[in-house]
């Protein structure tokens, strides 16, 4: 960047001295940060890449506040910039959304009017009916996979989203949603819990001291952060999204994601020391996945939407500790609860 900015500075000094001075000051400022001059640190570097192809090396064992990674859905404008869709396609999708919304509102109004007419007719001609139909509908909703039309968030093509309600014993109902786009190949899997926002957050700690513990069900919501101190593993909220799997499955997903990022995207510039530290990290992670070492899982969820299976239920699990806590102001702000009017 400095080389590019320094180019033609001498000519610019004669033709546009004011712009020259501003660029020169900026170059000096950047150099001071590169040299770590007094007063320049700490420095925060943020990379926002809509293509998802940029990466900053993470060094295992560093403080958790030094590095963070988050993924997001691209906006229609970003998809146009990347050449994934054209502006006309985006305009057509926006028009289709508005038309679909108007149709849905019209259909909802029509159905409401029809129900009001049926209710009036029922009052005029009362009859005895059962509730078997409603009960069957509720049972079918809980047992069957529901499918509804959606729009791909990547290319805006029509696609289908599948949804299934799963009851976790001694916890609550969770909703598993899966979307696959046949046009661009985009895939999305989400796990969400239902119900109202709880008044407290929850911290769940499990000491894994037996290989059989790896088969325990675990639900990690999108708002949940997870730590495994023995492995120097720290997942910030939002990492991996929502997952409903086993402890072994979750650790395997973490390993696969990290390994592909570390050794496929940054291996060329990695020092021998950093590579050794990563090899040691993955070696211990593999040992944990194989049940060869004991470790502790700590899950902190400000929405109390995460869960680890209690194999002793309904009795207490001697290796598990569950603590409800007051959310911090920062957590309430991040969740959008601070400005919420109840």
UniProtKB/TrEMBL annotation:
Q: Where is the composition biased (Polar residues)?
A: 105-114
Q: Which Pfam family is one of this chain's hits?
A: jr-ZPR1
Name the keywords, alphabetized: Metal-binding, Zinc, Zinc-finger
Region Disordered, residue ranges: 103-130
Residue ranges occupied by any Zinc finger ZPR1-type domain in the UniProt entry: 150-310
Q: Name one GO cellular component term.
A: nucleus
GO molecular function annotation: zinc ion binding
> Which sequence ranges form a coiled-coil region, renumbered to this chain?
none
Task: Look up the domain of life of the source.
Answer: Eukaryota
Q: Which family does it belong to?
A: Belongs to the ZPR1 family.
Q: Which PANTHER family match?
A: ZINC FINGER PROTEIN ZPR1 (PTHR10876:SF0)
What is the protein name for this chain? Unnamed protein product
Q: Per the UniProt entry, what species is this protein from, by scientific name?
A: Candida boidinii
